[in-house]
Task: inverse folding
């Protein structure tokens, strides 16, 4: 039986979260193409350069915050209910958190888009990183607050479902998918507290005129306290799919349940005490604490490598089940024409490349070379823009038949779509990385690098610009294909699909009976995570506020 038959109410909740996510992806992606064409000078007819920041804010907020987090809510709701085999306790509560998130989204989006209409007196051209000294209309911050409170309640919903299950199953191990959801949400509660303080105590009162000034360094620090863990909030649902669904799509089983648990615990511990690696060039933060953040960041490579190993081993197992042989020729036996598989596999491949450019970002000294250049968007379009985004699209191909009861429509479009995205992103991201090394800045409509001497020369600036524009256009085309398939499947089916997808997942090769019980001790890991955060942030934060909460700057420690 398909998920929609077993859990009709939860299927509706998953469906709505995914629909909003993919709607935001469509609008945000259009903005992305506009930016790519505009800043390369290929086509400037969509917006004026003065409106560039409005579009860029819309792109960042709609994609990095709204699309990713709604997709997470859809995927996690499915994972918790499926792996515990029970519904969320109350449909009304679920609609409450979904409604809060949606209301917050609409408020923030309308405020941002207000920037495009001169007669409208509000705007929020503050980019998706929204720290001071840039100031938005209060409705933007209020929208963010509602959105984040919505995500907190979503977490409460998943925890409640788990506690009820625990009541009936006191001695069982936490099912892997639920384990992943709970550890991710614990990380989210710890880290989003920082942005909540930033918005509620500083930015919102400042924007309302209740306080006269804020300390920009303090708001930046609170933002980045949240700003690194949020990247794991984008990635964890992708890992969730790679660990639990991708092995099945490849025809095999997860290699190791214990390794997967270790990875999620490591992310809970290490993803927050690293935020200073976004502030390497900020004055007022002691070098030693930047160094600690760098060291912790390098430790984060460990769970990433464990993931690469476990996921590839699981796929290889699948390929060998399908008759694959040899050192590498087993790769040919994988279902490359299955869009859910191809999307996840290509997303994983690009993530590996993104991991390498991330190492450059993380190094305290080489960071100076690429800081605030186009290299940085080059990097995160491989990570959040592909590892997460393409995996969520792949998850859409896998989930929509289950949550709608309709067969996937326009299958041939779906089959080519991940490859279109892959080609577009290869062009755009590679050229962005190169442009960054050449010193071309990010976040500007008018990069002053129109170097005439290089005009038309392969390897020169104009060639990179052309690749960015072409890549951005191909990416948007890939997005349109995806939306046709997904919205076609959602709206176009008759609901009588006889071939029902079996959403049940096979047992891992090495199951939970091999994981030490201590891994499931969520209280312990939360406590350790908090201790690490106090060590990383305690002194610098107390120095920042020692001269008054609203006074700019910081006395030396
Ligand atoms: C920034 C294009 C998809 C997240 C940018 C920029 C371009 C671009 C050209 C750089 C603008 C600048 O610095 O001046 C595109 C295209 C896409 C796409 C053509 C596909 C159609 C995505 C996706 C995500 C994403 C799927 C995340 C899920 C971001 C973020 C920024 C950005 C966070 C930085 C915004 C800022 O600087 O405040 N994008 N992008 N993009 N993109 Fe994308
Ligand atoms: Cu980071």
Result:
């Amino acid at each position: 039986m398909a998920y929609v038959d077993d859990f009709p109410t939860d299927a509706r909740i998953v469906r709505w979260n995914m629909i909003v996510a993919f709607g935001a992806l469509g609008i945000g992606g259009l903005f992305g193409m506009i930016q790519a064409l505009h800043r390369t000078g290929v086509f400037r007819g969509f917006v004026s350069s003065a409106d560039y920041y409005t579009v860029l804010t819309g792109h960042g907020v709609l994609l990095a915050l709204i699309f990713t987090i709604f997709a997470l809510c859809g995927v996690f709701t499915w994972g918790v209910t499926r792996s515990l085999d029970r519904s969320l306790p109350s449909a009304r509560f679920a609609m409450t958190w979904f409604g809060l998130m949606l209301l917050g989204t609409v408020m923030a989006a309308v405020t941002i888009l207000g920037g495009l209409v001169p007669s409208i007196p509000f705007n929020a051209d503050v980019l998706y990183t929204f720290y001071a000294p840039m100031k938005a209309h209060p409705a933007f911050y209020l929208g963010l607050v509602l959105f984040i409170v919505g995500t907190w309640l979503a977490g409460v919903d998943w925890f409640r479902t788990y506690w009820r299950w625990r009541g009936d199953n006191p001695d069982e191990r936490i099912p892997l998918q639920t384990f992943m959801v709970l550890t991710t949400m614990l990380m989210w509660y710890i880290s989003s507290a920082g942005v909540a303080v930033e918005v509620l105590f500083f930015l919102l009162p400042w924007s309302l005129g209740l306080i006269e000034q804020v300390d920009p360094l303090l708001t930046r620090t609170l933002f980045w306290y949240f700003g690194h863990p949020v990247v794991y909030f984008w990635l964890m649902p992708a890992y969730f799919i790679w660990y639990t669904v991708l092995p099945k799509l490849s025809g095999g089983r997860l290699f190791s349940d214990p390794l997967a648990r270790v990875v999620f615990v490591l992310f809970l511990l290490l993803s927050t005490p690293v935020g200073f690696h976004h502030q390497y060039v900020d004055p007022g933060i002691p070098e030693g604490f930047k160094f600690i953040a760098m060291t912790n960041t390098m430790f984060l490579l460990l769970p990433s490598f464990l993931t690469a190993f476990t996921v590839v081993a699981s796929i290889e197992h699948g390929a060998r089940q399908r008759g694959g042989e040899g050192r590498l020729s087993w790769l040919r036996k994988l279902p490359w024409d299955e869009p859910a598989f191809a999307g996840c596999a290509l997303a994983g491949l690009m993530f590996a490349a993104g991991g390498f450019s991330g190492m450059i970002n993380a190094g305290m000294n080489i960071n100076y070379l690429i800081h605030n250049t186009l290299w940085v968007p080059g990097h995160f379009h491989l990570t959040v823009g592909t590892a997460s985004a393409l995996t969520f699209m792949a998850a859409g191909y896998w989930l929509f038949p289950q949550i709608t009861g309709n067969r996937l429509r326009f299958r041939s479009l779906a089959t080519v779509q991940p490859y279109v995205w892959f080609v577009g992103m290869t062009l755009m991201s590679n050229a962005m990385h190169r442009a960054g090394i050449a010193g071309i800045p990010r976040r500007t409509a008018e990069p002053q690098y129109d170097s005439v001497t290089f005009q038309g020369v392969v390897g020169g600036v104009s060639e990179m610009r052309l690749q960015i524009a072409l890549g951005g256009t191909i990416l948007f085309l890939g997005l349109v294909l995806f939306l046709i398939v997904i919205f076609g499947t959602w709206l176009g089916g008759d609901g009588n699909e006889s071939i029902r997808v079996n959403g049940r997942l096979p047992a891992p090769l090495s199951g939970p009976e091999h994981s030490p019980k201590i891994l499931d001790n969520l209280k312990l890991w939360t406590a350790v995570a908090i201790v690490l955060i106090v060590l990383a942030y305690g002194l610098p934060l107390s120095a920042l506020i020692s001269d008054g909460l609203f006074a700019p700057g910081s006395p030396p420690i």
